[in-house]
Design a protein that fits this description.
Length: 328
């Protein structure tokens, strides 16, 4: 039998954790033949709730679930970790300044980066879901100097999946007919969903749709503000769809992307497309052999250029702010 893969989930007692853990344990994260050992990291007051979730996981009798450990100690949680899903974060509350938000998250992602550096397995892959995801990933990565920076990523796959469905609806097709979509930049309201390089049944999506007013007035804001629309409708933020996107991200990373298509993920920039080196920005990416690679040579129109630049500028500002706070 295969050695179980150790998967650590932070914020395991939260609502994304609740939607995520059962899918990991049932084989959706890595494959239906890969046993997993779960490590749940929570803050002390939430340990009891995490234990409740673990009881339910036990009660599923998942054949692939080799064990569950629950802890409030980051060192224990990341010891030997192969896949780390950093979901727990400090949300912005009313009246909170950006500096306070970044500091509070620095207090979470700095020690977690250090713990990953100290104990993770050589093949560790990290996905940050907790917001501000791109910058939290940058903080964690900068405290893990022994781990290649390419192993720290942030999630824009939910934005990617949202864009896919919106484009499919507009084009009157299903998501199976949509390929080559890209989310560029930050996982925030400035993100840029790019349909100019996307395809609908192999045809250029922007030409198929041919509706710039829809693109600017409907598509881009609908994708960028979808999180707020979910909160408005559901009375709670996206959870199952966020968990699903985290599953998609790791599955693509580990098992590869289909020939001829790509996905979106926020990874450390190598300077491609003029994005400053080192910031964690969303790109069109393929995965082959377990490593993300930025898709090169795409044509970037003036419209796309200005949108990408605006989102990247926001990421540069966030990086400068966490640098000024001594968090990286
Ligand atoms: P919840 O508030 O339901 O759960 C968060 C959990 O994290 C809580 O149980 C809390 O105790 C735990 N936690 C806090 N600090 C921790 C620490 N230092 N170590 C371990 N656990 C800690 O939030 P939920 O709805 O699950 O969302 C989690 C995060 O995902 C939020 O930051 C949210 O903004 C972010 N999201 C990111 C998305 C993305 O696309 N990148 C989309 C969905 C979601 O909004």
């Amino acid at each position: 039998a295969r050695t179980p893969v150790t998967v650590t989930v932070t914020g395991a007692a939260g609502q994304i954790g609740y939607a995520l853990l059962f899918r990991i344990a049932s084989g959706h994260l890595l494959g239906n033949d890969v046993p997993v050992r779960l490590r749940l990291l929570e803050i002390t007051p939430a340990l009891k709730a995490a234990e409740g979730t673990a009881m339910e996981l036990d009660d599923c009798a998942f054949p692939l679930l080799a064990g569950i450990d629950i802890t409030d100690d980051a060192r224990a949680a990341f010891d030997g970790v192969n896949v780390a899903l950093l979901v727990g974060a400090r949300p912005r509350t009313a009246g909170m300044e950006r500096g306070d938000l970044l500091s509070a998250n620095g207090g979470i992602f700095k020690p977690q980066g250090e713990a990953i550096n100290a104990g993770a397995a050589d093949d560790v892959r990290v996905l940050v879901v907790g917001n501000p995801a791109n910058t939290n990933a940058l903080i964690a990565a900068s405290h893990a100097p022994d781990v290649p920076s390419s192993r720290f990523t942030a999630m824009t796959r939910l934005d990617h999946n949202r864009a896919k469905t919106q484009l499919a609806k507009k084009a009157g097709v299903t998501v199976n007919d949509i390929t080559n979509l890209t989310i560029w930049g930050n996982h925030s309201a400035t993100q840029y969903p790019d349909i100019f390089n996307a395809k609908v049944n192999g045809r250029n999506a922007a030409e198929v749709v041919n509706d710039q007013a829809w693109l600017e007035g409907d598509f881009i804001p609908t994708v960028a503000k979808r999180g707020a629309a979910i909160i408005e409708a559901r009375g709670a933020s996206s959870a199952a769809s966020a968990a699903n996107a985290a599953i998609d991200h790791v599955y693509s990373w580990v098992n590869g992307t289909p020939e001829g298509d790509w996905v979106s993920a926020a990874i450390a920039s190598d300077g491609s497309y003029g994005v400053p080196e080192g910031i964690i920005s969303s790109f069109p990416v393929t995965s082959n052999g377990g490593e993300w690679e930025v898709v090169q040579g795409l044509e970037i129109s003036d419209f796309s250029r200005s949108r990408i630049d605006a989102s990247v500028a926001e990421l540069v500002e966030e990086r400068d702010a966490v640098r000024a706070l001594g968090l990286i």
